[in-house]
Write a structure and sequence with these properties.
The radius of gyration is 20 Å and the shape is globular. Helix content is about 75%, strand content about 5%. By secondary structure, it is mainly alpha-helical. The strands form 2 sheets. A two-stranded antiparallel sheet has the order 1-4. The protein has a two-stranded antiparallel sheet with strand order 2-3.
């Protein structure tokens, strides 16, 4: 589908690419509205904190683009793409998306949920870094073996089970007034949630080729496109969902979505990709110099910001995260030119 759409846009006038771009932006926005509204309604109906809904159901839906791209790449013999996709998405999710969301509005954080989910988030990143080191393989390069992928998948099942246990505890402790939301059938809310996720994911898959082709036809160099648009293309669902959530006053949903997406990028996206790759996923040496350090640094900054005395990520902290993402893109671009 992606190749057919790309070929169609490349062979069409630039005005067609721009029309497709505008249309996909519109549907992306509407899908994000439905997704956020139905997620908030579910949190009220079930008595669950919005951050828990964001870290489980919403993050599972918005992580599907990364999972599909990485798994298909691994099956086709390009498993290394899965590693770059997972790490790049974690960096984009945490630095770019949380940074922008905090700069545009309020991103409240629940200290207890941050302690629980945030600990799993950082532990998953540390586990990924450790198994990627060349301790388990000869030579300078590391390798994520197939058996490691299956361990990640088992840990994913454990994480989902524990998350819903935590959600059940929150439901029992919650005393929110859900009378209004109880008037809406549960099946209808779940349908609208599924529709919202589907529209966001499909619109994202149409938006990125449209932007890329439009940029090429307008004259923007492909190297710039690769270092920017393609780098965070699969994170567009999280980006739009986060901004929409903040705009509607549900910033905690955005924080939960990003934390859950980071965990799923390791255990789900990379775990499944490694599990279907008998030869394992090769870890390039340059990842030890930029990708892994940036991922851990960004997650450390996010954890520091979200555990401060104020139960909110401030605009200044969001700006710091955004600056780190910008520096990461510049360094990525620079190193590619030096090593290329």
């Amino acid at each position: 589908m992606d190749a057919l759409l790309h070929d169609f846009l490349m062979n069409s006038p630039v005005v067609i690419s721009l029309i497709v771009l505008v249309a996909s932006l519109f549907t992306l926005s509407k899908g994000a509205d439905w997704l956020v509204d139905s997620a908030v309604a579910l949190s009220l109906k079930w008595g669950m904190p919005k951050m828990v809904i964001g870290a489980t159901i919403v993050s599972l839906g918005t992580t599907l683009p990364e999972a599909s791209v990485s798994t298909l790449a691994a099956i086709k013999g390009n498993a290394e793409l899965a590693l770059g996709n997972a790490i790049g998405s974690i960096i984009a999710d945490t630095a770019l998306i949380i940074g922008l969301a905090a700069m545009l509005g309020t991103v409240p954080v629940d200290k207890r949920l941050i302690h629980r989910q945030g600990t799993v988030q950082f532990a998953a990143a540390m586990l990924l870094t450790l198994v990627s080191l060349p301790f388990f393989s000869p030579g300078r390069e590391g390798k994520i073996y197939q058996w490691m992928g299956w361990i990640f998948v088992v840990l994913l099942a454990c994480y989902m089970y524990i998350s819903f246990r935590w959600a059940k505890e929150s439901m029992e402790e919650s005393e929110q007034d859900t009378a209004e939301e109880n008037q809406k059938p549960l099946w209808l809310l779940l349908v609208w949630l599924a529709v919202g996720i589907t529209v966001v994911v499909l619109s994202s898959k149409i938006l990125i080729p449209a932007v890329e082709v439009s940029a090429i036809k307008i004259g923007i160099p492909q190297s710039i496109i690769a270092a920017t648009l393609v780098a965070f293309g699969t994170s567009v669902p999280e980006l739009v969902t986060a901004i929409t959530a903040v705009r509607k006053g549900h910033g905690e949903l955005a924080a939960g979505n990003i934390i859950g997406a980071d965990i799923l990028n390791v255990l789900f996206v990379l775990g499944v990709a490694a599990a279907v790759t008998p030869a394992g996923i090769r870890v390039p040496v340059d990842f030890y110099y930029l990708q892994f350090p940036t991922m851990l640094l960004v997650l450390g900054i996010f954890r520091f910001c979200s555990t401060r005395q104020r139960s909110v990520i401030t605009r200044l902290q969001g700006a710091v995260l955004f600056i780190f993402y910008t520096a990461y893109i510049v360094l990525n671009f620079t190193l590619r030119h030096i090593t290329g």
